[in-house]
Structure formats: structure tokens, C-alpha cells
Amino acid sequence: MKLTLGDLEDLARGAAFLGTGGGGSPYAGRLMVQRAMEEGHTVEIIDLEEVPDEALIIPTAMMGAPTVLIEKLPRGDEAIKSLRTLERHLGRTAYATMPIECGGINSTMPLVVGARLGLPVVDADGMGRAFPELQMETFHVYGVPGTPMVITNEYGDSTIVQTHDNAMMEWLARGITIRMGGAAYIAEYSMDGRTARRVSVPRTLSLALQIGRGIRAAREAHKDPFAELIALLRDTPYQYGRIIFQGKIVDLWRETTQGFAKGRARIQTLEGGAAVMEILFQNEFLVARVNGELRAIVPDLICILDSETAEPITTEMLRYGQRVKVMGVSVPPIMRTPEALAVFGPRAFGLEAEFQPIETLA
Amino acid sequence: MKLTLGDLEDLARGAAFLGTGGGGSPYAGRLMVQRAMEEGHTVEIIDLEEVPDEALIIPTAMMGAPTVLIEKLPRGDEAIKSLRTLERHLGRTAYATMPIECGGINSTMPLVVGARLGLPVVDADGMGRAFPELQMETFHVYGVPGTPMVITNEYGDSTIVQTHDNAMMEWLARGITIRMGGAAYIAEYSMDGRTARRVSVPRTLSLALQIGRGIRAAREAHKDPFAELIALLRDTPYQYGRIIFQGKIVDLWRETTQGFAKGRARIQTLEGGAAVMEILFQNEFLVARVNGELRAIVPDLICILDSETAEPITTEMLRYGQRVKVMGVSVPPIMRTPEALAVFGPRAFGLEAEFQPIETLA
Q1: Which residue, B20, B10, B11, is CA-closest to B330?
Q2: For a Cys-Cys bond, which of A77, A207, A255, A307 suits A323, CB 3.0-4.6 Å?
């Protein structure tokens, strides 16, 4: 599949939806790819099935707090340097690149890398959404070492990290990213095609495009974009979606700390009733409660959408007074296994609650 | 020159003297080499002049807060892993290793690496003393890039750092060291023999041995070890030494912060008079004042020594009540040039004072 300029806005919107508040700004993500395409580069997206068993895939991404990223936009060549450095270190050449997660920047960053290097981009990722930490990957859950990995900043400073496990990789890489100014560009979890088929969440780029198009089509047809979205999800591995709250943002607390954008948003019904939804986030939305009662929890998706247009709002773009609808969405079965929940279930974020599927919550 | 078991205590003592409070525990430093020698390895020390022009030298060292190091002793193979990783990255084999600074651990760490790998150790270093930061090197002052460098911890986790300048190398490496637990093992400033002759402080290993022997010989002959030390220095590039205070430690404030052991010691005369010396440190002693009046300042050496035995006391071993003499020593001319003072003079440590040679102070 060749991506067109017209696809970019839809893709970035859908990826931001799946990014569940994280993964960086869809606007910045779109601009990077647009520039590469306008310079004559093409973006080729291939299915996991098309990658030869032994061919090397090197995923690329942005790492850091999205709050920093919007003040320090990437050129796109930072992640290219990470990929090239990893190739030299491995003594092997990449056949393709791939996203590690869904999100406004992190779905589009590999597209820029692929376009500029003439590499195809694999239609899959390692989170099926966005998560804040590098070991929170289906790649990790199903046994792929994340290292050697490379981290590069906008000055071309780079580090090659090799660790005994993926949690230590995250710990060191986060420290390096903080000292690089809070946002940096990585190449990690290099693996062959056979492995990628076993450990990835497939077709999340095409799903993002489908979601973005669906929202736009509903708007253009003056239909309810939320109802369209819920109907569309039914035929995907994500299956179940529901509006769990609507109202306006009445309280917002956010800090960029330890390399993350952490915080809390409170949403009150427009009528000003007693019901208040509180959502906690660490780059991504983690848990949503109404007056203390659980409504949705990680790894299920919690998406804050503009209440008119259904445009996804990422954590760094939340503002006091925004009118929003909050949607909960079930994640595919590969992300709800006990092994997966041990890595990116509620406990991994220091939350006391157990995971409860969105379908089973009131 | 082949080092003998009998040399080790003298060498570690003399290196700790030159380490001016930093560079890690002489006891720990000695034990590491002793173990390697008892296992049958030999330590060969060569002069800078013996290294062929094109031969590769890879210096090795410990990095971190000495306060952490005494709780987490190195095995010695951590720095070996750094050297081997750097060799692989460069695609070249080391002809020799070398210290980057003088100090209890950092003079002996390269000896362990050399002994275990069968590499000679060059009798020179890049500080002519110890300094807390990686860019505070004559190597850096005279134009050698510190990167690519490698940092390894006790679990074999490692990172290869490549930066656009040596200050950024220090910044990233310090962050990595902190996340590795506060102490780690490095290989950096790789250079050829021709370059090393141009940018190093020569014969500091033999000088350390000479100082350590001199102190011991004076004790054994029931002579004043301080007078002997001052006489001995007169015939070296360090030339001028003087006791600038004596008394007991009456106040000690220390914290391990941002990867360094930082703090302040106050020393009062035994008679309890009004004169109090205050010494500030960041791993190493930086400035000594008596009632606010300058007595010695970086890069000149400030050495706190046991008032009876003249045994050097490193910053992490300072204790309330210790009886001490404080010695100031002039450093060689290569370390007092304007370029050198810009890198490791008082301003580089955030001190307001200008450098004043110890010879010119009261």
C-alpha cells in the first residue's frame, strides 16, 4: 500500500485515537510525513506477511514526554540516525522499519524514516495502543530483547544501550532521554520477520487510517461520529467501544517529571451535577473513575475526544473548559493475557485496582 | 617496569595523595590489583615514550561518587568489559591501557585491566590529580574527543556514548552512572601514542609510587613524613608543597547528589582557637579557606593527611574528630595554562574566586 498525502490527516487522527492520550501530537506527526512526501519520497506500507522470515526489521520511535515534544519538534532525521547507528552496530541492514506503538508521532515517525530511506514500513506495532515505557511492548511480553538500542538527540549525540533485561533498558534510556532534554529518538527491538509475526499487534497502521477516515466521513455526512466509531470498531480486534462520560474539563493538573507527562484531569457534566470523572495519566490515560467508581482501566483504551468533532485530544493538549466525550475501548486478546497484564496492567503503573474489561463495567 | 606485590600499598597511598580526596579508596584499589597478581597475572608499566606512534591506548576508570563505591566494590572485570566493547565498536585492538586520573581506585583500575588482559599500562594520566568530571582532562584541554566511550555496570549492562563535545559526554555519562546505581566503569579518550605524548601528564604512576614509598620510609625511619614529602616533591613537576593548616575535624557535611559526593569539612586547631579552616569538595577537595581567607584552590592539590602518619584521607573517609594536617601542592605548568584553567579552574566548579597559585598565598 502506498500512502497518499490525503491519507495523512486521517492516519494521524486514527493513530492519536489508538494512542489513548499519548504518542505525541497528531499535527506534528502529520507535518513530518507531509514534508517528506512533498520532497518526492513515497511511503510504502507492507503487511507482516510480506516480510521474509530472516529479514531484519528495525522499529523506530520518539521517546520522552509529549509535553516536551510540542516545544521541540523533530526533523525526522534523528530517528534515521538511530536506525543507521543500530545497523552499523549489528553489522546488518534493515529490510523495513515499524512503529513500536500507536500515536500521533509514533505512528508517523517510522513513515518518515521509511520514506527518506526507501524502506517499507510494516503495518503492525508492539503495543496496539501507546504506553509510556519501553518494556510495555508485546515484543517484550513474548520474549524479544529490546537491546541493542540506540537513542539520538537533535544534535546528533547518540548512545547505544545494551542491557540484561528490558526493564533496565527502559531505566537507562529514560535517564538518557531526560539528559538529552526530555525528548529523543530511538531504534530498538530489532527482530526478523518470523519473530515479528509472532509478537506484534498486526494491522494497526491500517486500523488507524480506517478510524481516522471513519470519523471524517461521519462528520462530512453530518452523522454522529461517535456512533460510527463504535460501529466501525465492532469489526476490528478492538470490538467493543462505549461512551463512558461526557462533560467539560473543570480541573487539570500536570507536571513533566522523571521524563514523563504525569497528571490528572477532572470532567464534570455540563449540567454541573455531582458526577465527576477523574482520569489519571502518565503520557497516556491510565484509569477513569466517576466519584471513585471504576469506569475503564489500562490496558483498555481511554480516549478523550472533542464532544462535537470526535477529534482525539492528547494529554498535552488538554485544556480547562474543553467539551469532551470519553470513550472506553476493549483491546485485542493478545493484550489481555496474564503475561501481558503483568507487563502493562494496572499494577505496572502503581495502581491498586485489578484489571476489569470495559465490557464488564457499568 | 614490573610492579611487585610489595609496591601496591605504596602506589595506592601515593595515588590517593595525588587524588586530592577523590579517585576512590586506596584500600579497595590495592585489593583489586593484589587479587589479580596473586592469581598469577603481572602488571607491566611502560613509559609514554615506549608506545608506538600509531598504537591505540584505551584508558579505563571508575566513574561515580566515591561514597557509593565503598559500598559496592568493583570486581575489576567491569572496566575490562568497557575496554573490550570499545575495541569492538572501533574495530581496533588496544596496545595498552592508561589511567585518566590519579586516585586510590583510578590509578589501580587500569593496572587490574592491564594485568588481566596482558596489556601494558602507560605511566601517565589526563589530570595529574583527580577531578570529578570527565571533561576535566588535559586530554580534553588539548583537543582529544572523549567519545566513543563505554560505560558498564556490575551486571554487564553497558552503553556506548557518542557526543558532539566532551561536556555533553560528561552530562550523559553522569546520568547513566546515576541510573546504574552511582558507580560504573568506563573506557574513553582512546588515542594513539603520538597524541598521548602531546596531551598527557607523564609519569604520574611512578610519582605515586615514589610518594607512597617516601611516606612509608619516613615513618620507618621515625622521621617527619611531611617534611620528607615536601622535600621529595621539590624534585618533581609538582615542586612546591606546604602545610596550610592542622587541627581536628569539627564539622562535616556531605551528601551524595547528582552522582557526586559533595560537601564541606571544617577543621579547628587542637588548641580550639578562633582559626577554622573550611574545605569544600565535589569528590575532590576544591578550595580551602581560613576564616574566609583563601589558602589553596583548585587545580592546586589540597590533601588532607593523618597528622601522625601522613596517610591521605579521601573525602568519603573523613570523620568527625580526625586529627589532620592539610597540605597544599602546586600542580605542573601544563595544568595552569589559561586553557587548562578554563576547564578545571575555580569557575568550572561554580566558585567565585580566581585561581591563585599556592606559592603566592600566605
Answers
A1: B20
A2: A307
* Within a domain: A57: yes
Strands, E, within chain A: which ranges? Answer: 45-46, 56-57, 60-64, 121-122, 124-125, 149-152, 158-162, 183-187, 191-192, 201-202, 241-257, 260-268, 276-282, 284-290, 293-297, 301-306, 323-329
Which residues from chain B sit within 8 angstroms of residue A89, using beta carbons?
Answer: 89, 160
| B115 vs B120: CA distance, rounded Å | 8
Residues A186 and A62 in one domain: yes
The verdict on residue A218 lying in a domain is no
Instruction: Look at chain B and report how many structural domains it folds into.
Output: 2
Q: What does the pLDDT average to over A217-234?
A: 96
pLDDT-derived band at A149 (thresholds 50, 70, 90) equals very high
Residue A126's CATH number: 3.40.1610.10
Model confidence at A191, in pLDDT bands (50, 70, 90)?
very high
CA distance B247 to A98: 66
Which chain A residues contact residue B64 at CB under 8 A?
A: none
Q: What is the pLDDT of residues B294-322, one digit of tens each?
A: 999 999 999 999 999 999 999 989 999 99
Q: What is the CATH number of the domain that holds A277?
A: 2.40.390.10
Which residue from B156, B160, B179 is facing A160, i.e. has the nearest CB?
B160
Q: Both B250 and B198 in a single domain?
A: no
The interface predicted TM-score of the complex, written ipTM, equals: 0.89
**Cβ contacts from A onto B, under 8 A:** 57
Per-residue pLDDT of A126-135, as tens digits, reads 999 999 999 9
- Domain, as residue range, for B132: 7-202
Q: With an 8 Å Cβ cutoff, are B164 and A155 in contact?
A: yes
Q: Give tens-digit pLDDT for B39-70.
A: 999 999 999 999 999 999 999 999 988 878 77
How far apart are alpha carbons B22 and A311 in whole angstroms? 57
The B-side interface with A (CB below 8 A) comprises 89, 155-164, 168, 171-172, 174-176, 178-180
A175·B171 Cβ contact <8 A:
no
> How much of chain B exceeds pLDDT 90, in percent?
88
**Whether residue B243 sits in one domain with residue B172:** no
Does residue A97 sit in helix, strand or coil? strand
